[in-house]
Amino acid sequence: MLFIEKREKGMNIAILEHIRTQAVVVARSTGAIEEGRSLIKGSLKDYPQLIAESLAWYEMVMQGLTREQVFKWISQGYTILMDAVPHRSFGHLWNRLNRLDTQHDNVLLLEELLYWTDEELAAVWQNDAKKEDKERF
Fold first, then answer.
1. What is the pLDDT of residue 104?
2. Helices (H) and strands (E) in the chain, counts
3. Interval 24-31 mean pLDDT
4. How far is residue 82's CA from residue 63's CA, in Å, rounded to a whole number?
């Protein structure tokens, strides 16, 4: 796994994590993986080493969901994964989940994902991608 242990020329770790997470959110919500790559490259243009490390991390995350990524999203305030995109939930979580269950087929509580096996986690995005492909044709 790739970790950034210290700041590179003033880059705040929280900002780096936010950029990385947003790249995943953009790619998953638009279905365009290149959009996420472009966001990383544009946001970190002054930090070439961080671009390389962040792109490697991005490719790993886009290949399958990891427990590490779930934990990071939880620590950043995200509570649910809806259609393979992390979302924050404001207000009463269970009321929102009940509403979403009637509107969306694929709503998962991030805290529950921490107990899934690595194989189950990796399949989350793969299953969602297969579902999207079926809906297109």
1. 55
2. 7, 3
3. 88
4. 18
* Residue entry with tokens 């950034």: 4
Distance from C-alpha of 19 to C-alpha of 25, rounded to nearest angstrom: 10
The β-bridge partners of 88 are none
Q: What is the DSSP letter of 26?
A: H
Same domain, 47 and 2: yes
| Distances, alpha carbon 96 to alpha carbons 55, 87, 92, 99, 102, in Å | 34, 11, 7, 5, 10
Residues 6+ apart with CB under 8 A from 96: 80, 89
51 and 110 in a single domain? The answer is no
Q: For residue range 1-23, what is the model confidence (pLDDT) as tens digits?
A: 344 444 445 678 888 888 988 99
Q: What is the DSSP letter of 115?
A: T
In 1-137, where do the E strands start and end?
80-82, 85-87, 107-109
E strand residue ranges, 30-134? 80-82, 85-87, 107-109
Q: Which structural domain, as residue segments, surrounds residue 103? A: 64-137
Residues 75 and 55 in one domain: no
pTM over 0.85: no
Q: Helix 67-75 to helix 13-30 angle, to the nearest 10 degrees?
A: 110
